[in-house]
Automatic annotation (TrEMBL):
The keyword Glycosyltransferase does not apply. Keywords: Coiled coil. Residues 6-131 form the MATH domain. The gene is LOC104699211. This is MATH domain and coiled-coil domain-containing protein At3g58360-like. It comes from Camelina sativa. PANTHER family: MATH DOMAIN-CONTAINING PROTEIN, TRAF-LIKE SUPERFAMILY PROTEIN.
Amino acid sequence: MGTQLAKKITWAIKTFSSSETGKICSDQFVVGGCKWRLIVHPKGNNADYLFMYLEVADYESLSPGWRRHVCYLLNIVNQNAVKRSKQNEEEKWFDARSPRWGRLSMFSLNEISARDSGFVVNGELRIVAEIDVLEVIGSLDVSEETSTIMETTDFNGFQLLPSQVRN
């Protein structure tokens, strides 16, 4: 089986509204022979915005010269009205000097945390990330590993777990 170069994952942060930590990291997942993770700062990062980014999880231990050219979409799901979801799409090079990319000023904490906004429901925030590795420089060849992040499949506009799709 070859290296998977694209993946769509859903990360449900169940304790988002009660989190007291400065940073929450997702479980690691593998795309393009590289381990990745999502990171959010639920209380902002010295600003009144949710700081969210994609990071190469083990970048400090990788061999010199590795690079990944990636197109990625980070989407904060509005659980009441999908059309109101907030998203940020970027195309970046990830390497030892730039192992993480994200955007600070797109997601207002006041809007996300507002009562009845639909972004935080029962204390839970959902993030959908789509990662497409366009070019691989340097071989990392990390094998796929299981995690508690849900991989989903698009079926007629609905996101379903693999176990919910009949072959």
